[in-house]
Write a structure and sequence with these properties.
This protein has 269 residues and is of the alpha/beta class. It has a domain at 1-70 and 200-206 and 213-269: Rossmann fold, CATH 3.40.50. The protein is 29% helix and 28% strand. It has helices at 50-57, 79-85, 101-106, 121-133, 149-162, 179-194, 206-209, 232-241, and strands at 10-21, 24-35, 39-43, 64-69, 72-73, 86-89, 167-171, 198-202, 214-219, 222-228, 246-251, 254-259. The strands form three sheets. Strands 6-7-8-3-9-10 form a six-stranded mixed beta sheet, sandwiched between helices. The chain has a four-stranded antiparallel beta sheet with strand order 2-1-4-5, with helices on one face. Strand 7 (167-171), helix 6 (179-194) and strand 8 (198-202) form a beta-alpha-beta unit. Helix 4 runs antiparallel to helix 5. The model is unreliable at 3-7 (pLDDT under 50).
């Protein structure tokens, strides 16, 4: 998946982006352009500012500097239009536990619906397609509160997919997903890319992130590297961000990140 496709423009652009949390500056004057129609994954150690950057790009946090979505200043885009162009899946997403999975996913269609209008055929088809993509169709009538953590996460992913936005931002989308469903998530991303969707993710699962077209590497609130995953310099930047405590190896045609454990000299008797 990490072969670079022909770029068609810039989906998101940040210039001089800074953000603070609790009175402490977390992001420091970031300049970044996210290529349209590709998957960009944001990597870095805990506290690097990855989630803060993603939320700032989505317009969910106050910030200084500028963010543009598909060429237009983010703040100039009407909320309804922005909700159709950009979909968001965050960590620990809140949703009413008494709603059925079907109704939760239908919430993703609200930006496309007239006020108080019932769902139309396009809405129904998008919800069904999204539930099937995430393999959540079988429990579509169950309440969200009755689902396991992994099942709930797949429903919330389906809600984000149902928006059918041009840009999809996901913060830790693999939370509570076991390895087989992590692989299914990769298949969903691949299908989105085939339809021209721009995907941006924050992941702790480095090996999964190495399937992305491009990587943004962060440390201490700054972008230390941004480049194609296929470039050796990008993979080296990932290792350096984690103080060379990981190593990246080729395995069966893909890249795998493993803990790097320094060899220890045997103790004498």
């Amino acid at each position: 998946m990490n072969q670079i496709a022909a770029s068609t423009g810039v989906a998101l652009a940040a210039h001089g982006l800074s953000a603070s949390l609790g009175g402490r500056e977390v992001l420091h004057h970031i300049d970044l352009e996210i290529v349209q129609g590709q998957w960009t994954s944001i990597l870095g150690p805990n506290g690097a500012g990855k989630s803060t950057l993603l939320k700032s790009l989505a317009g969910l946090l106050p910030h200084s500097g500028t963010v543009a979505l598909l060429g237009a200043p983010l703040q100039s885009i009407a909320p309804r239009q922005r909700a159709r162009q950009l979909a968001w899946l965050g960590q620990n997403e809140a949703s009413a536990d008494d709603l059925s999975a079907w109704d939760v996913v239908m919430l993703g269609r609200l930006p496309h619906q007239a006020w108080l209008a019932p769902p139309n055929e396009k809405d129904l088809a998008a919800v069904e397609r999204s539930l099937r993509y995430t393999q959540a169709w079988e429990w579509r009538h169950r309440a969200l509160g009755q689902l396991s953590g992994g099942e709930r996460q797949r429903v919330l992913l389906a809600r984000a997919l149902a928006v059918e936005a041009q840009v999809l931002l996901m913060d830790e989308p693999l939370a509570n997903l076991d390895p087989p469903h992590q692989a299914d998530w990769l298949c969903v991303v691949e299908a989105l890319l085939m339809h021209g969707t721009t995907v941006v993710s924050v992941l702790h699962e480095i090996t999964i992130a190495l399937n992305a077209n491009r990587l943004v590497v962060m440390r201490e609130g700054r972008v230390t590297h941004h480049g194609a995953t296929a470039d050796a310099a990008t993979r080296e930047a990932v290792c350096q961000a984690f103080d060379s405590r990981i190593a990246i190896y080729p395995l069966n045609g893909q890249w795998v990140a493993l803990p790097h454990i320094p060899k220890r000299e045997p103790h004498g008797n």
